[in-house]
Sequence to fold (694 residues):
Amino acid sequence: MADESPAGLTDEVKAEIQEAYRSWLAKRGFKPRRGQREMIAAIARALSAESDRLCVVEAGTGTGKTIAYCLAAIPLARALDKHVVIATATVALQEQVALRDLPDLKRHTGLDFKSTLAKGRSRYVCLKRLDDRIGFDASREAPLFEPPDAEALSMYQRLQGAFADGSWDGDRDSWPEGLSLEAWASVTNDRAGCGAGRCSYYHQCPFFKARQQAADVDVVVANHDLVLADLGLGGGVVLPDPGETIYVFDEAHHLPDKTRSHFTVAARLRATNEWLTQLVGSVETMARRFNDPRELQRARNRLADESGDMRNQLADVERMLRDLPFVAREGRTEIYRFPRGDVPEPLADLARPLGQAFGSVSAILEELRESLEAAIDGDLDWDNAEQAETWLPAISQLAGRAASGHGLFTDFGGDSESSAARWASRRTSDSGDDIELTSAPLDPGAILSSRLWDVCYGAVATSATLCAVGTFDRFRQLAGVVAGARSARIPSPFDFPRIATFSVPRMQSNPGDSAAHTEELAALLPDLLELECSALALFTSWRQFNAVAASLPEAVLERCRLQDSASKQRLLEEHREAIDAGEPSYLFGLASFAEGVDLPGDYCRHVIIAKIPFAVPDDPVDEAIAEWLEAQGRNPFFEISVPDASLRLVQACGRLIRHETDGGRITLLDRRIVTRRYGQALLDSLPPYRLEVA
Fold:
């Protein structure tokens, strides 16, 4: 690998970047930041190398990393005739970058580029499905859907009216009213269910309009999920071709978990059996609607032959799994994890023919989908051919379900070469229980390496928290980052010793004794909350969260805003309103409040952390990884638990200082950070707060 190759980073490009930065600073009235300049230079050098054009950058809060990576990547990409895809972990940050940061950059730098925001299909309304829901006709509708109730029908009519008069663009995130996931799921679509150019609504389709915009721009602002979906399809299907693209992954510490989640396969046995039964009836109904053309007769007969055996095989799998020694977890869930991910041979013997059968069903449904497309195009002389467009999405979705079943049972049959955590979970509900089989990849880095890093032109991975206990090792391992990738660690410009205190008060209890620790937390919290006008109290378990909240005096509790008592957005709004009115307000939450919550100034003067945020010890994936390391004679606690807890602790503490004018205190109610030998490593990972240990 050549260390430097300035082919793309010519003197002209360097001058363009420098002039753009000077112009942005001058027009915004900002002073140059050393860390921001270092980040721009590090990214520009990495992306202009001959090979291994990957740069990992941890940029502390206040660096201004969005502007830094844009100033480095966009001019260089345009000089190289490449696209830039900026991927964030959340839709909120995605919209901030696309709708605020990039227009600001363009306005104040003079850089000439076109950009757009890209989301997955599920964020856009499917106009055909919307029309079908409103005009539901049981005599014509595929019998896979129930007619909408009155409330849903009224909502769909408002959606349709707003799209028709131009006041809504079809993007769920721009719809001003509340919209339940269930109601939305009936009027959006996925790739399998989309008729694309054969759909009569194709030219009006919000998704395809957005996709066309993405094809004609220099910079596409996406999210991690959309990038992974595109890579799962081979790359270049929804987003630009990876080989012609420079990716920038903001909040990159989420990327390994997002990858593992995206490539996890699962199937609920009873639910799968039900849709198989429904499948045969649906194709039978469809065949009658078209007066039994030869293609549908053949598909119906083949599906009937396959599905009968499959339903019996699924029942056999369910009976076998019910004898497993399930272990109760939180809620109404029980889990049995297969040691080392090894599936017992009797179960594998049942899974193998199911994998093959689901593959056959998937192929039959794909042929059926092609027949429907041919009928739409007029290439098949079917009676009532105009109804083919109505049936195409339903059959396409069923083909996708069958393909998913093929992947799951092929994996459990032992035909997968990848290492995975495999488990069975049994969930009890009011309507009975169901057993779900799951396989999750243990090494998301291998997936990222083969599908992303090895094929893209270049990439930047950045976040405020990429280093764990002082190194990039944990992130490199999880993300599959090549050894030759460059890295840079940019410290925050904030004067932490002056503006923030990290306190560890004297306590009698240890978090290992949950009951005693919870009781002491409840006793200490009222006085701690009184120290500042606002606070964010963070917990690691619902059990302790609920117990502490129930123990608080009523006078304190009425000032607290508890996670799940309202939507997260509403709680934050109420909190800000109370502080603006001069009233004290305290937010209580779990992990989702420890990251991505921006509460500058008086909105957060005190972060209270119940205990060191170690991962839940009974997560099946974490258990499988620990087991794998132990088999190699390694220590999973120091290799995984401590580094991961370090990242989570830094993220939680980071809720306090968001801007240069912020200040306050952090209190950790867990003395293990000063009594255990791993505690110093955790302290060293934090910004240089003023430390107070009682």
About this structure: The radius of gyration is 27 Å. Residues 169 and 618 are 44 Å apart (CA to CA). The mean pLDDT is 89.
